[in-house]
Design goal:
The chain is of the alpha+beta class. The protein is built from nine helices and 18 strands. A six-stranded mixed beta sheet has the order 3-17-16-18-14-15. A five-stranded mixed beta sheet has the order 10-9-13-11-12. Strands 5-4-8 form a three-stranded antiparallel beta sheet, with helices on one face. The chain is elongated, with a radius of gyration of 40 Å.
């Protein structure tokens, strides 16, 4: 019977050959384990040398808002809650269409009013044989076309200046006839009006046939004018109506007017209308599924709409407690108190893990030019560290396998 051979440690072998193989395995195993520990130490040293930061595709929430909560912040941080929504609803609107919104439709009279620049056509009938205004045998006199002057008058032979501006065509006919009866007692007047610039609208772009279109009455709607202009160009992406009136600009989406009759407003003489593509947009970055420039999909988009348009949050990386909207206001829009922001740059912080935050996000409106930033979850950093350590451990395991 072979005797047991003592070797290093507590290992005993039945034969010298067996002891040699076991000793080599132990030494290789120790080498592999030592390699693992050395790798872990190397990873930790690298992280320390890098300032304890890890490569990531988005910032952490505290990295963004920490300065805003310091004693000397350079921007304002606003927590978005249901309690804060009445205050935020009063804050000014930013973006290209911030000057004036749209307005509600009302009904106007079915008649038109004579304005400066309109053309007046007058025919005077007189059955007297020796009429003052017509030749012998003629019963009517065609007065050459008249243009309403800047003072709102037209000039009639034997009568002089007659004020017609601001009158309906029927009222103007009666006034002209009263004046004519002073010189031609049996006179009867016919009066026609051709609308001029102040009783017309200009459709300048985004339609089949741009041009100037006369208003037949004071109840003409904007969709009727677009129809006269050949309809909206079907190649436009998300068309938007722009209306300029009295030095002010108004704007809304075409689909909003088509779906809501109260937005089909009356047009007025001198209006200028353009149909353009809706260029309003916001930027989505961070741990959302899509990181790109996103155009508005409807007239008003809430924070939840914006998150959805960005493809939602990344299930592996996003921090639903750290959805941020970055916005910049004009200096003239700053207010002290709840009526407006205190600083030009504002960060709205949204927590999508609570019902309060979700309902508030449904009400908070995204403005053109905003930036939607989805911050990264802190768990992602821990997963990165574990992944690095796991890689080192894998290397050590492969060394052990080689030893075997």
């Amino acid at each position: 019977m072979a005797a047991f051979a003592p070797v290093a440690g507590n290992i005993h072998c039945r034969t010298a050959a067996r002891c040699s193989r076991d000793l080599n395995a132990v030494e290789l195993g120790e080498v592999g384990l030592l390699s693992v520990f050395r790798g872990i130490i190397a990873v930790c040293l690298v992280l320390l040398a890098a300032g304890c930061t890890l490569p990531r595709s988005a910032a952490l929430q505290n990295q963004i808002i920490s300065e805003g909560t310091s004693q000397t912040p350079s921007f304002q941080v606003v927590e978005v809650t249901r309690a804060a929504m009445p205050m935020l609803a009063r804050w000014p609107y930013t973006g290209d269409d911030a000057r004036h919104g749209w307005f509600r439709a009302d009904r106007g009279p079915d008649s038109s009013l004579i304005r400066t620049g309109d053309r007046i056509d007058i025919v005077v009938w007189d059955n007297q044989d020796n009429s003052l205004i017509s030749d012998i045998g003629d019963k009517q006199t065609q007065i050459p076309p008249l243009t309403v002057s800047a003072t709102g008058t037209v000039y009639l032979p034997y009568v002089g200046e007659v004020v017609v501006r601001g009158l309906t065509p029927e009222a103007a006919r009666e006034r002209v006839q009263q004046k004519m009866e002073m010189v031609v007692p049996a006179a009867q007047v016919q009066l026609g009006v051709t609308p001029g610039r102040n009783n017309s609208v200009d459709v300048v772009s985004g339609v089949g046939n741009p041009g100037r279109f006369a208003l037949q009455d004071r109840n003409t709607r904007i969709l009727s004018v677009l129809a006269q202009a050949g309809g909206v160009d079907t190649s436009l992406r998300q068309p938007r109506i722009r209306l300029q009136r009295d030095g002010r600009a108004y704007s809304t989406r075409l689909d909003a007017v088509l779906s809501d009759p109260s937005l089909n407003v009356r047009v007025q003489g001198g209006d200028q209308i353009a149909v353009v593509e809706d260029m309003r947009s916001f930027t989505a970055i961070g741990a959302s599924q899509n990181q790109r420039l996103i155009h508005f999909e409807k007239e008003r988009m809430s924070a939840l709409d914006a998150v959805s348009a960005a493809g939602g949050l990344s299930a592996r990386r996003a921090d639903p407690k750290g959805v941020l909207i970055l916005r910049e206001y004009q200096p003239r829009q700053l207010r002290k108190g709840p009526e407006g922001p205190d600083m030009q740059q504002v960060v709205f912080a949204i927590d999508l893990t609570s019902a309060d935050g979700l309902f508030a996000a449904r009400q908070l409106q995204v403005h053109p030019g905003d930036t939607l930033l989805t911050t990264e979850s802190p768990i992602t950093s821990a997963q990165t560290i574990l992944g690095l350590i796991g890689s080192v451990v894998g290397i050590g395991a492969r060394v052990d396998n080689i030893g075997e």
